[in-house]
Amino acid sequence: MFMCGGITRRFFVSLCVTVVASTQVWAIGAAAIGDEILSARSIGQGQTGVAGQSEDPAVVYLNPGAMTALPGTQLSLGMTGVDLNPTYRSDAGVESKGINTVGVVPNLAVTQSLFDERFSVGLAVEVPYGFKTHWPSDGPLRYTATDANLYMVDVSPALAYRLTSQLSLGLAGDFFDVYDVQQAHQIANPDGAPDGTGRISGQGTGWGMHVGLMVTPTAQHSFGLVYHDKVKLTIKGSAELSGLGPTLATLMGGTHYQTAAYTAIFIPQNVQLGYAYRPTAQWLIEVNTAWYDWDSGRDLNVRYAESDPTRAAILNSGNPTVLDRRSAWSAVLGANYVFSPRWQWRGGFGYLPHATPEARFLPAVNDLSRYGLGLGVGWKINSLLTLDMAYSLVVARERHITTDATGINSIDGTYNNLIHLLSANITLRLPRLSHRSS
Fold first, then answer.
1. How far apart are CA 118 and CA 375, in angstroms?
2. 260 belongs to a structural domain
3. Are 214 and 168 in contact (CB under 8 A)?
4. Strand partners, 227
5. In this structure, what CATH number is given to the domain that contains residue 59?
6. Number of independent structural domains in the chain
7. What 3-state DSSP class applies to 64?
8. Dihedral, 23, 227, 230, 177 alpha carbons, nearest 10
9. C-alpha dihedral (221, 331, 29, 388), degrees to nearest 10
10. Is residue 241 part of a domain?
């Protein structure tokens, strides 16, 4: 009984932590398990942009208060390829290399200035959270996690107003659409039958908002402040068990079992701060730091549409589950150099600490502290079009995990990850139409 209930519970816990936490990339401040893969310019510049990227429409998400610095109409469309390479080595020396995982993350942002550039509107479609990982189905972690993915987008309509020549304020909505989330793992049948499979899938949506403040006291200095509020996502889906042996089949009513399941999870509130310095007309140097309130979601309560007392007791074994995530600060540093009227070079470095304590570690999430290095280039094709490209290497700091789990459920060992990002954006800039006298 405990095998089915415990595996199902861990399975759903891992799924829901995944929904609010990803291991794909270091970011401007998403703590250890965020995934803010935005524009190529931002990635190439170390994922900065809260206080200084006055040429990037991605500021709709990064800091809507900075939209007033974008004249005319600006439209940017891009994609980022993500290549993850996780590895695991048990304390007994058994090594397991995660199946190489490649994904593509799109981005879109458009801004329009109005009323002599005192007012701006914008819209961004970004992927601030996401997840995809594969552990071998015959590896040592197969009873905890094999396949897992979260596909979601954040649609952000925004507006900004320039209060003075030195101060702008922006407001943006956040519509989170989790349109596909799945996770699978193996089930060890206690009667010697071949392993079964557990799978969970679900969808959910939720609304939030973020506000941004942009202060530019002089041409050389600018400051940015952004606040994202806490967002509740209601995830509705189903839990499915298949290939159950005789013992589990008797308890669950057959070799295949399926029931509806739902829970409430939260994207944490966060605060992002930025400072940009322009020592010359060619150089821009920016530093960002961010605080994510991950410990605001301390537990997870999963509910199943199961009326049979025995099955319900099995499914709810250990539920709700304590998560115990900690809040965390991150820091990144980036620079942009205008080499010529047509070429710009940029780079950046960042560090993000892990947020999950050792006792709550989940291989499907693989929460590791990370160091990231970004390099990028911008090419002004003509007066209307610009192409930005970037590469980022993210090196996860090796982490050794020791928990109370034993036997086939043990996840003790050493975890690593190496991540490559390759990004490109094409941006169209149309100048503000001048007013003609009649």
1. 33
2. yes
3. yes
4. 211, 271
5. 2.40.160.60
6. 1
7. helix
8. -60
9. 60
10. yes
- Supply 56's token pair: 């990037």
Separation of alpha carbons 409 and 256, rounded Å:
22
The ranges of the chain with pLDDT < 50 are 1-33, 435-438
**What type of residue sits at position 395?**
V
Q: Considering the domain boundaries, does residue 333 fall inside one?
A: yes
Report the distance separating Cα 344 and Cα 178, nearest Å: 36
Which domain, by its residues, includes 229?
2-428
CA-closest candidate to residue 275, choices 330, 342, 211, 222: 222
Cα 121 from Cα 365, distance rounded (Å): 36
Instruction: Map 182-202 to HEC letters.
Output: EEEEEECCCCCCCCEEEEEEE
**Residue 119: exposed, middle, or buried by beta-carbon count in 10 A (0-12, 13-18, 19+)?**
middle
Residues 6+ apart with CB under 8 A from 435: none
- Residue 436 is assigned to a structural domain of this protein: no
Query: pLDDT tens for residues 181-234?
Result: 888 889 899 888 999 998 888 899 999 999 999 999 999 999 999 999 999 889
Alpha carbon distance 244, 117 (integer Å)? 64
Tokens of 46: 């170390």
